[in-house]
Design brief:
Order of helices and strands: EHEEHEHEHHEEHHEHEHEHEEH
Shape: globular
Strand order of the largest sheet: 3-4-2-1-5-12-11-6-7-10-8-9
Radius of gyration: 20 Å
Largest sheet: 12 strands, mixed
Family: Belongs to the PdxA family.
Number of strands: 12
Distance between the termini: 16 Å
Pfam families: PdxA
CATH architecture of the largest domain: 3-Layer(aba) Sandwich
Function: Catalyzes the NAD(P)-dependent oxidation of 4-(phosphooxy)-L-threonine (HTP) into 2-amino-3-oxo-4-(phosphooxy)butyric acid which spontaneously decarboxylates to form 3-amino-2-oxopropyl phosphate (AHAP).
Pathway: Cofactor biosynthesis; pyridoxine 5'-phosphate biosynthesis; pyridoxine 5'-phosphate from D-erythrose 4-phosphate: step 4/5
Protein name: 4-hydroxythreonine-4-phosphate dehydrogenase
CATH class of the largest domain: Alpha Beta
Number of domains: 2
CATH topology of the largest domain: Isopropylmalate Dehydrogenase
CATH superfamily of the largest domain: Isopropylmalate Dehydrogenase
Structural class: alpha/beta
């Protein structure tokens, strides 16, 4: 059950989070950090490892699959020379999970601009790159914490483009991928799915927009006919208080902030980014590179701990299925 943990952007807090996570999880689970050991904080206890040797090493040292990034790390200062090696670490992690040598992939935060400038990275982010490597038609982003799971149907696009981008096909695919993942990866035998309306008050019967009447409601009804347990379209402003959350297992939202604001309000430090629709498990801490505190020792490992634990739990769920 070794989890592959990719290094992420060396100039960020990723190299500092790995040894913190090891210290807190070494008696609980096993992960293998893929990166340049020279980028780890001074004094880090680490040993060269493979997925097979990592479980024996984990109790005494951080297991590391070493990669030479050529130049030293400069906290807070991304370097173009690191970019190709960051991508190679991701590639190696994907290879390890697809070959069955690791049970899941957990990725520390990358810096997209550094990858564009240094490696010609042509993807909006981690999720899309992993989908490309896996040959997946579409991957879906879920944000999860113990109190809430949310999935935005559209992600990193301007708000004014959302109504056109949110098609019946996109919404259907998002819900079906989420439904399958809830069963396979989270052990929920009959997922209860709540779907938010796009407009305030879910359109208020067409007075504040017609997407709910013309698009969302017919799409949801077609999925109910297939046997899915779906509520909606619901007014997003009343979906996320405690009593409402108790009525569903996962919420599907129309756009990025509609999904991410509630979960980051509920659990800012402990949220986990999960990619659904891949042939392997992938989780990531729900934060960025934190250049402003890199190298200061102030990095908070809470989300990384949650991402590693969720990767383990999802792998166990798939094994039990």
């Amino acid at each position: 059950m070794t989890i592959a943990l990719t290094c992420g952007e060396p100039a960020g807090i990723g190299p500092e989070l790995a040894p913190l996570a090891w210290a807190m999880l070494r008696d609980e689970l096993t992960f293998l950090w893929i990166g340049d050991p020279g980028h780890l904080p001074p004094g880090t206890l680490w040993e060269e490892a493979t997925p097979e040797t990592a479980p024996d090493i984990m109790p005494r040292a951080l297991p590391v699959l070493p990669r030479d990034f050529v130049v030293p790390r400069k906290p807070g200062q991304p370097q173009a020379l690191h970019a190709p090696h960051v991508v190679e670490a991701i590639d190696e992690g994907v290879h390890l999970v697809r070959s069955g040598r690791c049970s899941a992939l957990c990725t520390l935060p990358i810096h997209k601009q550094a990858l564009i400038e240094g490696a010609g990275f042509a993807y909006p982010g981690h999720t899309e790159y992993l989908a490309s490597l896996a040959g997946a038609d579409r991957a879906v982003m879920m944000l999860a914490c113990p109190e809430l799971r949310v999935v935005p149907a559209t992600i990193h696009i301007p708000l004014h483009e959302v109504p056109e981008a949110l098609t019946a096909r996109l919404l259907t695919d998002t819900i079906l991928i989420t439904h399958a993942a809830m069963i396979r990866d989270f052990g929920v035998s009959r997922p209860r799915i709540a779907v938010a309306g796009l407009n305030p008050h879910a359109g208020e019967g067409g007075k504040i927009g017609t997407e709910e009447i013309e698009l969302i409601a017919p799409t949801l009804e077609a999925l109910r006919v297939q046997g899915l347990d779906i509520a909606g379209p619901l007014s997003a402003d009343t979906m996320f208080h405690a009593a409402a959350r108790a009525r569903y297992d996962v919420a599907i939202c129309g756009y990025h902030d509609q999904a991410l604001i509630p979960i980051k309000t509920i659990d800012f430090s402990g949220g986990v980014n999960v990619t659904l629709g891949l042939p392997f498990i992938r989780t990531s801490p729900d934060h960025g590179t934190a250049f402003d505190i890199a190298g200061t020792g102030q990095g908070d490992p809470t989300s990384t701990l949650a991402a590693l634990r969720m990767a383990r739990d999802m792998a166990q769920a798939r094994t039990a299925a």
